[in-house]
Amino acid sequence: MLRRTPIVFLAWFAAVASGCAGFFPRTDPPSFYVLSASHDVATGPPLDVAVGVGPIELPAYLDRPQFVTRKGPNQLDLAENERWASPLQKAATNALLLNLARQLGTDRVSSFPYALGLPRDYDASVQFLRFEASASGEVFVDAYWWILDPKTGTPLAARLSSLSRSAAAGDAAAAAAALSSALSDLSTEMAAAIREIHARRASG
To answer: Rounded to whole angstroms, how far apart are CA atoms 143 and 128?
Structure first.
């Protein structure tokens, strides 16, 4: 009988373990998403300018890896299994930087914080008031942005942009793509402002 005890115990343990598995179901691994830069090329001649991008500010409730969806005026939903692959503030900065480089036709772009003594002709700063998807799938981007003189900090342009794009409801990948497209639209507005300011300076 003593020799059978380990076998009986192992059989009992396996039965208990398999029974407990039902109480602790496996969760799906999280999916990760990124913001992508646009492949739009410059709409005008390349500008020989150096542009700094930043600071870029996002609402504090977006300072988290989880994908945030607005369910109502005062309610947000955090998706534990839908996450950003990198901090959203950094991802938005990188996308804006690449977008502006392509739309202005310059490779002299840099992101905040700037290296000491780095020459810049213009700084582009953005404060996002809204950067999110709704439960219906539509994404909204509201942003107050400035084009600044790096030497004096003087605003050369200051505007509020409100952008929206449609995406499939409940589809985080589609929402990330729509947010990327909205960032491209914002970059287009900022690039147009820089071109206008640069032309005015050149003629004056």
So the answer is: 4
pLDDT digits (tens, 9 = 90+) for 172-195: 999 999 999 999 999 999 999 999
Given the structure tokens 């503030």, which residue do they identify?
A: 89
- Residue 89 token pair: 């503030």
DSSP state of 62: G
Query: Do the beta carbons of residue 133 and residue 125 sit within 8 Å?
Result: no
Residue with tokens 């059978």: 4
> Global pTM?
0.85
List, in order, residues 6 or more apart from 200 with CB less than 8 Å away: none
- Return the SS3 of 123: strand
Ramachandran category for residue 199: left, alpha or beta (phi over 0 → left; psi -120 to 50 → alpha): alpha
By the 8 A CB rule, do 87 and 117 touch?
A: no
Domains of the chain, earliest start first: 33-203 (3.40.50.10610)
Q: Are 183 and 97 in contact (CB under 8 A)?
A: no
The number of beta carbons lying within 10 Å of the beta carbon of residue 158 is 12
Report the C-alpha gap between 59 and 106 in whole angstroms. 30
Give 3-state DSSP helix, strand, coil % of the chain, rounded to 5: 35, 30, 35
Is residue 49 within 8 A of residue 119, CB to CB? The reply is: no
Residue with tokens 């690039």: 191
